[in-house]
Amino acid sequence: MINDKLLEVILSPPDSALTIATKGPGGIHLINSWNSYIQITDDDKLLLPAGQMEQTEKNLKKNNEIKMTICNRDVQGKTYKGTGFLVTAKATFATSGREYEMVKNKFPWARAALVLVIKEAIQTL
Amino acid sequence: MINDKLLEVILSPPDSALTIATKGPGGIHLINSWNSYIQITDDDKLLLPAGQMEQTEKNLKKNNEIKMTICNRDVQGKTYKGTGFLVTAKATFATSGREYEMVKNKFPWARAALVLVIKEAIQTL
Questions:
Q1: Could you tell me whether strands A17-24 and A65-76 are parallel, antiparallel, or unpaired per DSSP bridges?
Q2: Backbone CA torsion sign across A76, A40, A113, A25
Q3: Model confidence over B28-87: pLDDT tens digits?
Q4: What band does A1 get if pLDDT is binned at 50, 70 and 90?
Q5: Distance (Å, whole) CA A58 – CA B7
Q6: ipTM score for this prediction
Q7: Over the stretch A35-86, which tens digit does the pLDDT of each residue have?
Q8: B1 near B121, Cβ under 8 Å?
Q9: Residue A77 gets which letter from DSSP?
């Protein structure tokens, strides 16, 4: 699921904002995090620290699918420098366990780990 | 609508991806563009070049509201360096007129101008 190009987008400078969309009662709900905040587990889950993200957590209880865009202006894309991925994933919040510990260890302020199991990752640019 | 901080996010390096969300028949539809592609009109509309964006255009015909996240890792935010805005806007595609010409002049490959009339811009980070 995590091919070399997606890995390059996640790991290369400059750091950049990613966007996560969920469906909420008021419509589309968008939040941001930073590419550099991602940790990747041995089994290719993506972990992000949740500081607030309360509405996202509520939305996931009704529909646990998220869409995420993640881009990097300095990574070569299909036709020019600058590329990005549209990621569809199943998402959960973890407040205990190994994935939570990984996040908490790096981001002591995190109240939870947002755990993404990638369903599909399409390079769009 | 466009305060100094939002202007700083749009205009300052490093260039970064922005995300635009619309409601589509298959759910949430996300696209990306780059902060540096934005042009601002005298009356504070945001213009973006549309290369493809066909699904976004279709979605806007049924519901012309978009949500956009736009961030900059190097601009001071509320608590640390790195900030972003959640923008709600009414969006249309222009294929003629002054706004289209502005976009076409800078981006000859653009098939249209995506014109955003900001309803609300909230600094989220």
A1: antiparallel
A2: positive
A3: 999 999 999 999 999 999 999 999 999 999 999 999 999 999 999 999 999 999 999 999
A4: confident
A5: 32
A6: 0.96
A7: 999 999 999 999 999 999 999 999 999 999 999 999 999 999 999 999 999 9
A8: yes
A9: -
For residues A114-120, give the mean pLDDT.
98
Q: How many CA atoms lie within 13 A of A86 on its CB side?
A: 14
C-beta atoms of A28 and B28 within 8 A:
yes
Mutation site for B-interface testing, chosen from A69, A74, A87 by largest number of B Cβ within 10 Å: A69
End-to-end CA distance of chain A: 17
The one-letter code for the residue type at B13 is P
Q: Name chain A contacts of B21, Cβ cutoff 8 Å.
A: 19, 21, 28, 30
Pairing of strands B27-34, A65-76: unpaired
Residues of B in contact with A84 (CB under 8 A): 17, 32
In degrees and rounded to multiples of 5, residue B74 shows phi and psi of -105, 5
* Residues on chain B touching A28 (C-beta within 8 angstroms): 21-23, 28, 67
Question: Considering only residues 56 to 115 of chain B, which have any Cβ-Cβ distance to chain A shorter than 8 Å?
Answer: 67, 69, 71-73, 82, 84, 86
B17 at A interface, C-beta within 8 A: yes
Amino acid type, B63: N
How many Å apart are CA A36 and CA A80, to the nearest integer? 23
CB neighbourhood size of A4 (10 A) = 7
- Identify residue B125 by its one-letter amino acid code: L
**Tokens standing for residue A17:** 């904002």
